[in-house]
Design goal:
heterodimer; A: 283 residues; MetI-like fold; 11 helices; 2 strands; globular; B: mainly alpha
Chain lengths: 283, 312
């Protein structure tokens, strides 16, 4: 076999791998679409589930997921972004800096179920929040923290030093420089990370399974200390219920489609923001 | 021409620095930021702390060796409850190995396609598509495995039930590929252009350049990507929980049901009484899982650092 034809053979193989990955994506989304599109209408989104989750809509779980995202945002965005500011702008290079880097990298690799155990031990029992919206939201907040820190750090690092030097040269203090010159430029990158981490929180099931999600609730949670329904757990619960059959399947595909739409929609927004930002600021 | 500069500044008030006001505030953000950073970093410590604190009772009453090497996991048995983690370790190992066997070759192939072969326009579409694949919630992958993939498997291999380790392995492979491709594509992209150009100048074809120059140069980055994607498989809960019938057997048969460590925690935690041995034993499973991921993460980090030091 000549060198050229060997190259052709290998390249065909790699094309095949690329095609396989695209096929996997298309197949999974297509199945959810075909199975679930029949379920999606306004009633499906605005009515609570009925008859042990086999009929009705997904209003209660959907609201539960949105509440969760709210708690995650309130906790993880300020803590994550400000940590990143400290790590980039204030932390001196050296042993401490690499220590922080290792800690954040390790946090990102911890399995979600282990975060669930942390939430159970810390928020549910130690702090006494009980199995609740607050415990689950904070658990998910801790889970996405490393994602936000990593994204924000990258975005802040990408702001060229000349911007900082110009500001400092005009007499601004370090904090004024960060606040008025570095953060605005880094904002699109930070926003991308924030959206991605919120979509991750929306889709996580294992941590909330341990910290407070309910199989069924008659209404939306009344306070942050009450239990709640959530979309990803709703999908799992309905799918693994023994009495499912056709109507159950329609419910489950419909819920999965709604979750996919939410998560993929957020991902697409993040990708678009990042693309725009790359075109807008080319240092 | 003479310009009288003194005229230009006449109307301006002299600038008076007030060192107090701004400088005093300057220490505040710094301290505040440090505190917040400590909070976020302490989560790692808290994870470790709560895991160990809660698993000590199990290790103490059952025994470290018995827990790690015991071959039977039967925590709810009325006759003699057994808390041997070996079947769970084997279950996690089996589905992860099956997933890796599929995902590593496909992932590397896809990376090379993306980095070297794909037309820029195809690339501009394919990269975000792969990122989307990484963004799909694990419960949706699990649903696909539960309702569709297991049916295909049962049909292809003539099984009575498709909820076998292989079902979990395949769906985990689908979840591993996007991480691997994204990370190893970065590694390939950061190989200096001079290396490629030198190879081309010596008359190498694109594939020869790829195989003998670019891939070896990016090797440590690719290895780190592989390790991180395996970690995703080891730590995944919902997809394996839904794809595999959870039975704690000590087996490496891909056509058998197995029980992974993650799924064990997810299924059994709801049925345990707080403070019981079973409750504590599940934390112990979490501790072992946590230690495994820390070790793998550290290895990936070391490998990655070697890579970035080589090409700066």
């Amino acid at each position: 076999m000549s060198r050229r034809s060997r190259e052709k053979l290998y390249f065909a193989l790699f094309r095949g791998c690329g095609a396989l990955v695209v096929m996997a994506l298309v197949t999974i989304i297509a199945y959810m679409l075909i199975g679930g599109i029949g379920a999606i209408d306004l009633d499906f989104l605005t009515e609570p589930p009925r008859a042990s989750n086999t009929r009705g809509g997904i209003f209660t779980p959907l609201i539960g997921t949105l509440y969760l995202m709210g708690i995650v945002a309130a906790f993880a965005i300020p803590v994550g972004v400000l940590s990143a500011v400290y790590l980039v702008e204030y932390q001196k290079q050296g042993r401490m800096a690499s220590f922080w880097r290792i800690v954040v990298a390790n946090l990102a690799g911890v399995p979600s179920i282990v975060y669930g155990l942390l939430g159970l031990g810390l928020f549910v029992y130690f702090l006494g929040f009980g199995r609740s919206l607050l415990a689950s939201g904070l658990t998910l907040g801790v889970l996405v923290l490393p994602i936000i820190i990593a994204a924000a750090r990258e975005a802040i690092q990408a702001v060229p030093p000349s911007v900082r030097e110009a500001s400092l040269a005009l007499g601004a203090t370090k904090w004024q420089t960060v606040r008025h010159h570095v953060l605005p430029y880094a904002m699109p990158g930070i926003l991308t990370g924030v959206i991605l981490s919120l979509s991750r929180a929306a889709g996580e099931t294992a941590p909330i399974l341990l910290t407070g999600v309910a199989f069924y609730m008659s209404g939306t949670p009344g306070s942050v200390f009450s239990q709640f329904m959530a979309l990803p757990y709703h999908i799992y619960a309905v799918a693994t219920q023994t009495i499912s059959g056709m109507s159950g399947n329609l419910m489950v595909y419909g819920s999965a489609l709604a979750l996919l739409a939410l998560v993929i929609g957020m991902n697409i927004v993040a990708i678009v923001i990042r693309k725009r930002y790359r075109e807008k600021y080319r240092w | 021409m003479n310009i009288d500069l003194s005229n230009m500044t006449k109307g301006l008030r002299p600038f008076r620095a007030r060192p107090g006001a701004r400088r005093e505030l300057e220490g505040l953000p710094r301290a505040l930021l440090l505190i917040i950073t400590l909070i976020s970093a302490s989560t790692l410590l808290m994870v470790a702390g709560f895991l160990i604190f809660n698993s000590v009772p199990a290790f103490r009453s059952i025994g470290l060796a018995e827990m790690l090497l015991g071959t039977s996991w039967d925590p709810t048995s009325h006759i003699r409850a057994a808390f041997g983690m070996l079947p769970l370790l084997a279950g996690t190992f089996l589905v992860s190995i099956l997933a890796s066997l599929i995902a590593i070759p496909v992932g590397i192939g896809c990376t090379i396609y993306l980095a070297e072969i794909a037309h820029p326009r195809v690339r501009a579409f394919l990269k975000p598509a792969i990122e989307l694949l990484a963004g799909i919630p694990s419960v949706v992958y699990g649903l696909f495995a539960l309702l569709i993939l297991q049916d295909w498997l049962a049909g292809i291999f003539g099984l009575s039930s498709g909820y076998v380790a292989l079902n979990g392995g395949i769906i985990l492979a689908v979840m591993m590929v996007p991480i691997m491709v994204t990370l190893s594509e970065d590694a390939i992209a950061s190989v200096p252009r001079e290396l490629r150009e030198a190879a081309y100048a010596l008359g190498a074809t694109r594939w020869e350049t790829m195989r003998s120059v670019v891939l070896p140069a990016a090797l440590s980055g690719i290895v780190a990507a592989i390790i991180l994607s395996i970690m995703r498989a080891v730590g995944e809960t919902m997809a394996v929980l839904m794809a595999v019938s959870q039975t704690p057997l000590l087996t490496l048969d891909p056509f058998s049901g197995v029980q992974t460590m993650t799924a064990t925690i997810a299924i059994e935690m709801g049925e345990t009484a707080v403070g019981s041995i079973h409750y504590s034993a599940l934390f112990a499973v979490g501790t072992v899982l946590f230690i495994i991921t820390l070790i793998m993460n550290t290895i990936a980090d070391l490998v990655m650092r070697r890579f970035s030091e080589a090409y700066q």
